[in-house]
Structures are given as structure tokens and as C-alpha cells.
Write a structure and sequence with these properties.
alpha+beta; about 30% helix; 2 helices
Length: about 80
């Protein structure tokens, strides 16, 4: 039996945007830091990306969202590498 992996919601959102012909660009990238008393593992650093969702001709920003989801971050990184 094959189990299909369902992408996380933020990656699904970006994939749907691309499938409908939209384009995107990285508007911002930042390091995040979580920690404190509620974090049993101590402080951890991560990344967060803010994406601008653009019209198919890349001319108009239609939406913006931020995410720290690792699968989305990997997808964005691979897309940026492919575009270079």
C-alpha cells in the first residue's frame, strides 16, 4: 500500500498559486529564535520566509504570507536555485 505525502498547508498554498499560473518572489527572509521556559529543548534557531504572490506576468502583488514551515523553505530554496 502506497501512502501519499500531503504537503503542509503553506506549501499547498504556494503550489496552488503556481498551478493557476501565478508567480512569486521572496519579499523577506529572517532568522527566528524560539526558547524560554516553555521550550524544554532550549533555544532553537530557524528560518522564516515572506513570499509575495504575484500575477502571472509578475507585475502586481496579489497577496503576501510568511511561513517557517521546513518543506516550504526547502521548496522556495530549490525554486530560487533553479531560477538562477
Amino acid at each position: 500500500m502506497t501512502t501519499e505525502h500531503t504537503p503542509p498547508p503553506d506549501l499547498q498554498r504556494l503550489l496552488r498559486w503556481e498551478e493557476s499560473g501565478g508567480t512569486w518572489r521572496v519579499a523577506a527572509r529572517r532568522k527566528t529564535r524560539s526558547g524560554g521556559a516553555g521550550n524544554a529543548g532550549g533555544d532553537t534557531d530557524g528560518d522564516e520566509v515572506t513570499l509575495s504572490l504575484l500575477t502571472c506576468d509578475g507585475g502586481e502583488e496579489m497577496d503576501v504570507f510568511s511561513s517557517a514551515d521546513p518543506e516550504l523553505l526547502a521548496y522556495v530554496q530549490s525554486g530560487e536555485s533553479a531560477a538562477r
